[in-house]
Description:
Number of helices of chain A: 3
Largest sheet of chain A: 6 strands, mixed
Radius of gyration of chain A: 15 Å
Strand content of chain A: 35-45%
Mean pLDDT of chain B: 95
Low-confidence stretches of chain A: none
Oligomer: heterodimer
CATH architecture of chain A: Roll
Number of strands of chain B: 22
CATH class of the largest domain in chain B: Alpha Beta
Strand order of the largest sheet of chain A: 2-1-6-5-4-3
Largest interface: A-B, 31 and 35 residues
Distance between the termini of chain A: 29 Å
CATH topology of the largest domain in chain B: Naphthalene 1,2-dioxygenase Alpha Subunit, Chain A, domain 1
Strand order of the largest sheet of chain B: 13-19-18-17-16-15-14-22-21
Shape of chain A: globular
Strand content of chain B: 25-35%
CATH architecture of the largest domain in chain B: Alpha-Beta Complex
Helix content of chain B: 25-40%
Order of helices and strands of chain A: HHEEHEEEE
Shape of chain B: globular
Number of domains of chain A: 1
Amino acid sequence: MNLQLLQEVTAFIWQEGDMLDHGEYDGWLTLWTxxxxxxxxxxxxxxxxxxxxxxxxDDHHMRQLRVQRLIGGESISTSPQPRTVRTISRFRVLFxxxxxxxxxxxxxxxxxRKETLKHYxxxxxxxxxxxERGFRIQRKLVSLINSDDALAGIGYIL
Amino acid sequence: xxxxxxxxxxxxxxxxxxxxxxxxxxxYNDPALFDAELAKIFHSTWVWVAHASEIPDNGSYKxxxxxxxxxxxxxxxxxxxxVLLNRCRHRxxxxxxxxxxxxxxxxxxxxxxxxxxxxSLRGIPHxxxxxxxxxxxxxxxxxxxxxxxxxxxxxxxxxxxxxxxDFLGPAKKWMDLFMKQGAGYGIKVPGEHRFRFPGNWKIxxxxxxxxxxxxxxxxxxxxxxxxxxxxxxDFVKGPGYVEDLGNGHSVMVMIPDxxxxxxxxxxxxxxxxxxxxxxLREEGIDEPQVRRIVRAVGGTGFNLNLFPNVACSMAFFRxxxxxxxxxxxxHHSVITMDGAPAAANRYRLRLHxxxxxxxxxxxxxxxEAWERVQKGAKAGEDLWIMLNRGLPGEKPSxxxxxxxxxxxxxxxxxxxxxxxxxxx
Lengths: 158, 424
């Protein structure tokens, strides 16, 4: 097992999670490749996400709009903003060809907003590309374990 | 408000709770009224259960609810559609737990009773013990009366109510118009967003015919769209209208230009669709069909509210399911053009994701507003929900009553039907 690589991708993904929990969205937007996609599927069996209905299928433009919506103060469901703490663990490198690295890990997010504490568990699959300082995200797939259940509004980035 | 209603009368006379310009807050929060609604509305009228494309083949099924009762919507070997209560006739277990799928039969997991796709009881394991005290013909899955129009399948527990087409009445022509967004390919429902909010189902019913909230609640959505779309959605002061279509149904026309998607096909293609049009041309689609697709791809300019549980809402089906007096589940079913070029359907999928669902730019704000209605409506004991917007301008129309686009005419229509049914 390539422990050094495991440590590198873990550090990168932890940093991303920390940025999201602390609202560092400008920095978060720079973590992506130009064509990077952020996907939250509904159907656990789906593979062709582009041609399937998802909760989110964001390119760079939609990520920018999503961030703007979260911080813009125009949306009653995100003001007050939810507070989140995410724990990411169980990292495993699934693929590595020297340029591209695929990593799967587990994420538990606790969300508190107004009077309610909620919990979302998901498998995350990152397709990363090696870049000058670390990695860029080519694809982030967030598979909620209850994705095909009825959810409530999620006013932050998973 | 000076209109006090003695609390003791609330449950006994729903008629007093609905007036021509307001409804009593107990309609949102009285559990006894909720139970009465299940019996007198959801179990007594036509309730939408599926779009035909959700059960395309022999043996295709989906499970859903009518009121709180679990049902299976299934297409049998002869292509006939049945709506069956999801309850084994032996000891009551559900015979199907999947949301959708394909099967040859339904077999109860408890003791193995097997039912055919039309609900008839086919097999009982180890029948010896019953001797001659059982007649399989008497114990099929309970089958509801099922009728459909324009691909929309409805079911009812009542065998003596009017045919579906009579219940829909003038709403039928709007359903036909709505289906034109198939651009000649036909309508397909390949998925949905499902979410719940802590509020009464009628809050959602009202919202589908509420243009008034749009610029305020959906400000963050409007900030995220291009100039042309922004102009299109600036409809509150525009020439749109709301029309009461009878039987609780209503239509809210927000963008009159988008009523008939097969009209004006020779108009220039709007700038925001140019990239899609170019992609379709590259795929070899001829110009008239490119124009037809592009005209239909964003959906219609109206919301058709069909009492009590479904709406044809611009580009999708909006379905509500009562969970309790203060909880409702909503399904936003996406619509694609069946067999159209993938690029056109990708456009529709992304459009749906942009506004709808728990991570959309619209739905969570609607949900927040409805939650606040339910919460705020706990305050006070003799207060009313006001529904008098657009009353002064309301006029008789060919199909009912019409007023301006942000009038509460559609809500008044729904509550008059509520009143009629709750008194029956």
